[in-house]
Amino acid sequence: MKNCLITGGSSGIGRAIALDLAKRGEKVYITGTNSRKLDAVIAEINECGGTGYSMIADVRDAKLANQVVADAIEKMGSIDVLVANAGVGRFKQLEQFTDEDYNIQFDVNVKGVFNYLRPVIKYMREQNFGQIIVTSSNLGFETSARCGIYGATKFALQAMIGALREELKGTAIKAGTINPGSVDTPWYNESVDQKRRAKMLSAEDVSAAAMMMINQGASSDIDHILLHPGRQ
After folding, report:
1. Among 105, 199, 200, 220, fewest CB within 10 Å belongs to which?
2. What is the number of domains present in the chain?
3. CATH no. for residue 207?
4. Within a domain: residue 28?
């Protein structure tokens, strides 16, 4: 049994990972900012055979992140897996970005991950066990037009997790990223047509990659999984 904390667990990729874990009978603690969506996913987790817990939490709030981690440990008994999944993206020509566009992407995508990594790493060092998974992007390795700020946040995540992997050498704690291309989730609004959606990855594709990382054996330490759409 592996107890898992997932940020951004109320929809999309986070929800898919939570439900796959629930089908194995795991305990899953999810965070999000919409109580109605959180409650709906908790009901699904319990229906699938897992045990679900949740807290409304904005990942930008470091104090609240500490409270979430403490509550997750109290309710589940441990945190064996962290999936830092919450993120936000805004896509424009570089000169069109506002200060608010810049700040929210770095605050959620980078600081939001850091806010959970810090207390979880301290806890996992004490138990000398754990798997950390960060939902990054293929844009953490390559650039694309209109993705200048979002891509910069994902490059920052790759640097952070790369450094962390070096710092975790000699422990039984593993850390890696999942780097998908475009994923068909509620993240994309109705302006994205069905023809484009049909060529995207599914949230379940990304969850399958997460399960591979969670299930890897002691002799394996996955650095990252880069996912490309296989649909034509």
Report:
1. 220
2. 1
3. 3.40.50.720
4. yes
pLDDT (tens digit per residue) in 50-74 = 999 999 999 999 999 999 999 999 9
150 is catalytic: yes
Identify residue 108 by its one-letter amino acid code: V
pTM: 0.96
Catalytic residue among 102, 116, 150, 188: 150
Give domain status of residue 232, yes or no: no
